[in-house]
């Protein structure tokens, strides 16, 4: 992987490594193509100026050799062109593919706070469109420059030898062309930028609408979505229209300038012929070289647009590679050794904004956990209850180090979670959340997620313990049934039990249930609750409880408010104490619901 500390250009060059042979061959072929293009007008000149004057017999003899020579030349050009187009693009695609892997690896290394700060659409666009721009510049850049420079310098020298004064005028007009091109590109940049913004708005709208399609349908809000989409789509169309208008103006102006150039050359060349300072064959050759001289100039200038996009994209790419994850293993950190599974939070403080603003002067942010002290005995089930926003989920997120405590300590069997490897820590903790994420694939693949070496017997056993085996085995394809995008072919309760089977297979000594049954109906909840009780047997378990039925299984209940423990005890103890928990409990009976949080 590229070293993020290198300069932008140095990092870029590392991606050519491993492609050296292709790179050199690409440049050689580009040189051959440019040389053949340069040679043709010279051959025509020799033919018209010298050969036709010698008589038909001499012409026929030479034409045969000339024909064979031209066929060989164009065969060479064909091979060169094919190589440049095919292998040049393959070289760029390989570089793009390596960059994509590096970027994906970097995303995988990032901590939760990074994903809190960046939208997934933005991260996706870095992976797709930015890298495409970079690869375009990576393979077209060297070849355009080489072909362009060979053609410009070659044709300039040849034009100069044919007629120096005329070449002087040509260079003057070429300078005007360059100046106009620079100006037009500068004017068009804002149009291109606007166009990119508009398309990304269309994409975001589309992404948002499709991701929330169930909500859209349930609110019969298709017309609202259609109107919003039309608005962004029309804005995109308008910006495209502006872009094409600018492009039309630019192309037409370049064509007009080329026309002017041809006119000047013909008129001035004709005058030079009339003065006896030039022969007609030279003028014809001159006309052919003009486009060889001017076309690469405009191509190179146009290429600067691609280059600018690529540089901007590569900067963003390097930014990601250079970002150090907030949470890292200490050098030489040992693996966590869980002997019993006792958990201890000691005077823990935490604020979400701390990591995000650590580099900024205003580091800090409102504390979400304020001096939390909590000991959980090994093998016990402890329920966290309290008002929404009280810090229950955050407390749990600190245990697997999704975020690091701002101060205080958090230990498992006496080992601080910051002193052990993240891998061993996360292997020791099983998480069952309210939002179950199933990956596109079969039920078996989803149960075995994270344990790819699991045998079929182990997968089936995990499904049985999670109370999902009977249902899966009743399906025509059994464990090979596809779950659909995000598990859309399964009900909420079935998805939750697949997620529980995953944890059975993982077999961790510590469990976190974060409102695992909150989204389920009563019937599914009961089945899932049984699976959860079976799963938590003999393991240290923290349950974020939403429903009373979930709390009843807990040996201890901890009430949290404003990031602190306000009381703890058994259900009966807390009720008799008449504190916060008792208040929630009474409120719940008052409105007849089962919710306590
Ligand atoms: P609970 O689980 O008790 O409902 P949470 O731990 O989810 O409480 O939230 C505690 C506080 O932290 C809330 O004020 C919430 O808005 C805030 N919070 C939760 N997650 C994040 C996050 N990823 N980034 C910033 N603030 C967050």
Describe the structure.
- The protein is of the alpha/beta class.
- It has two domains: 8-322, ABC transporter type 1, transmembrane domain (ABC transporter transmembrane region fold), CATH 1.20.1560; 333-356 and 365-428 and 545-592, P-loop containing nucleotide triphosphate hydrolases (Rossmann fold, 3-Layer(aba) Sandwich).
- The protein is built from 20 helices and ten strands.
- It has helices spanning 8-14, 20-49, 56-109, 112-117, 120-162, 164-211, 213-218, 222-274, 280-322, 352-356, 392-398, 422-427, 443-447, 456-465, 469-474, 492-506, 522-536, 548-552, 571-577, 580-591; strands spanning 343-350, 369-376, 381-385, 407-412, 415-416, 429-433, 510-514, 540-544, 556-561, 564-569.
- Helix 6 runs parallel beside helix 9 (280-322) and helix 14 packs across helix 16 (492-506).
- The model is unreliable at 1-5, 355-363 and 592-597 (pLDDT under 50).
- Bound molecules: adenosine-5'-diphosphate.
- Residues 116, 352, 368, 386, 388-394 line the site of adenosine-5'-diphosphate.
Write the layout of secondary structure elements.
Elements: H1 8-14, H2 20-49, H3 56-109, H4 112-117, H5 120-162, H6 164-211, H7 213-218, H8 222-274, H9 280-322, E1 343-350, H10 352-356, E2 369-376, E3 381-385, H11 392-398, E4 407-412, E5 415-416, H12 422-427, E6 429-433, H13 443-447, H14 456-465, H15 469-474, H16 492-506, E7 510-514, H17 522-536, E8 540-544, H18 548-552, E9 556-561, E10 564-569, H19 571-577, H20 580-591
Parallel strand pairs: 3-8, 3-9, 6-7, 7-8
Antiparallel strand pairs: 1-2, 1-4, 4-5, 9-10
Helix pairs in contact: 2-3, 2-5, 2-9, 3-5, 5-6, 5-9, 6-8, 6-9, 8-9, 14-16, 16-17, 19-20
The chain binds adenosine-5'-diphosphate.
């Amino acid at each position: 992987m590229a070293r993020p500390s290198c300069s932008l250009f140095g990092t870029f060059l590392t991606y050519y490594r491993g492609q050296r042979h292709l790179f050199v061959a690409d440049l050689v072929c580009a040189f051959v193509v440019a040389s053949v293009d340069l040679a043709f007008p010279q051959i025509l000149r020799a033919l018209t100026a010298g050969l036709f004057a010698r008589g038909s017999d001499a012409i026929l003899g030479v034409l045969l050799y000339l024909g064979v020579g031209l066929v060989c030349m164009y065969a060479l050009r064909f091979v060169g062109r094919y190589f440049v187009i095919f292998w040049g693009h393959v070289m760029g695609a390989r570089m793009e593919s390596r960059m994509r892997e590096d970027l994906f690896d970097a995303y995988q290394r990032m901590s939760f706070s990074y994903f809190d700060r960046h939208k997934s659409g933005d991260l996706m666009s870095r992976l797709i469109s930015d890298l495409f721009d970079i690869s375009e510049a990576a393979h077209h850049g060297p070849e355009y420059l080489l072909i362009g420079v060979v053609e410009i310098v070659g044709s300039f020298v040849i034009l100069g030898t044919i007629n120096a004064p005329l070449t002087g005028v040509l260079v003057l007009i070429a300078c005007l062309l360059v100046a106009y091109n620079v100006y037009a590109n500068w004017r068009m940049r804002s149009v291109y930028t606007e166009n990119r913004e508009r398309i990304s708005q269309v994409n975001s709208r589309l992404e948002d609408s499709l991701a929330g399609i169930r909500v859209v349908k349930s609110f019969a809000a298709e017309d609202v979505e259609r109107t919003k989409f039309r608005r962004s789509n029309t804005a995109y169309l308008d910006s495209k229209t502006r872009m094409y208008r600018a492009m039309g103006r630019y192309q037409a102006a370049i064509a007009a300038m080329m026309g002017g150039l041809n006119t000047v050359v013909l008129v001035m060349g004709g005058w030079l012929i009339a003065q006896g300072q030039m022969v007609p064959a030279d003028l014809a050759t001159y006309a052919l070289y003009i486009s060889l001289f001017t076309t690469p100039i405009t191509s190179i200038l146009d290429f600067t647009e691609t280059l600018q996009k690529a540089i901007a994209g590569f900067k963003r790419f390097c930014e990601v590679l250079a970002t150090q994850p907030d949470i890292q293993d200490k050098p030489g950190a040992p693996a966590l050794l869980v002997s019993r599974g006792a958990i201890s939070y000691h005077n823990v403080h935490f604020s979400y904004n701390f990591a995000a603003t650590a580099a900024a002067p205003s580091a800090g942010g409102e504390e979400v956990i304020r001096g939390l002290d909590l000991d959980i005995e090994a093998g016990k089930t402890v329920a966290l209850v309290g008002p929404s926003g009280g810090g229950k989920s955050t407390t749990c997120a600190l245990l697997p180090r999704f975020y690091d405590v701002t101060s205080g300590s958090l230990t498992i069997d006496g080992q601080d979670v910051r002193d052990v490897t993240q891998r061993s820590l996360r292997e020791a903790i099983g998480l069952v959340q309210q939002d179950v994420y199933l990956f596109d694939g079969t039920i078996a693949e989803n149960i075995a997620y994270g344990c790819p070496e699991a045998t079929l017997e182990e997968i089936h056993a995990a499904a049985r313990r999670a109370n999902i085996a009977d249902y899966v085995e009743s399906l025509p394809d059994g464990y090979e049934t596809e779950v659909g995008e995000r598990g859309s072919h399964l009900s909420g309760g079935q998805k939750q039990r697949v997620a529980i089977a995953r944890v059975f297979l993982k077999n961790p000594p510590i469990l976190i249930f974060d409102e695992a049954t909150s989204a389920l109906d009563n019937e599914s909840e009961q089945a899932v609750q049984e699976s959860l009780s079976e799963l938590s047997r003999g393991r240290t378990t923290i349950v974020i409880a939403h429903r009373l039925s979930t709390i009843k299984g807990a040996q201890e209940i901890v009430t949290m408010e404003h990031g602190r423990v306000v009381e703890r005890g058994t259900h009966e103890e807390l009720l008799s104490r008449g504190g916060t928990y008792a208040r929630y409990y009474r409120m719940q009976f008052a409105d007849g619901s089962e919710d306590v949080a």
